[in-house]
Specification:
- By secondary structure, the chain is an alpha/beta fold.
- The protein contains six helices and seven strands; from the N terminus they run αβββαβαβαααββ.
- α2 (about 60-75) runs parallel beside α3, α4 (about 120-130) crosses α6 and α5 (about 135-145) crosses α6 (about 155-170).
- About 35% of the residues are buried.
Length: about 200
Amino acid sequence: MTPTRVTLRSDAAEESARRRILGIDPGLRLTGFGVIDATRGHLAYVASGVVRTGTGGMPRRLGVIVRDLAHVIAEYAPAEVVVEKVFVNVNPTSTLALGQARGAAIAAAVLAGLPVHEYTAGQIKQAVVGGGRAAKAQVQSMVSRLLDLPGLPSPDAADALAAAVCHAHATSGVGSLARGTPRMRRGRMLRVRARST
């Protein structure tokens, strides 16, 4: 009887240490999502995919993003959400559309009562690949390796999984992000300032 109790306590401790993180790569046509479990420095793949908005007016497409992400949140029950920050593009129309898709993704998380964390694309690439200007193929490859996937996820799902991995590393003591505040220049992480205690 005693070994069973020890096992149950161990399972309960493992469960309480596990954090389920939903990463979102917003886009008006394709919004990537990726769910991982982070347990004491170990990362485990849970699910990933893409929300396809199809055609139609802006309100309908934004509604699809909110609705489908709400289904993902209900199915996988993440504890927190990570959304990639919007960068200012050369084309202001594209930047505005991306911002609206991002707002719909954040709304889905907030409506579910989840905390939302944000990272720039450069911060995410730096945390996952080691360079803030990494190509999409490099992100796909590294995400596949870090999460021990049998193949490469789609580019949008890989970006979402990378956002979740970045947040897991930044908040769990893995890597330099958890030890201090990163100093940024042009979206690139330069040096970490130690936290004063």
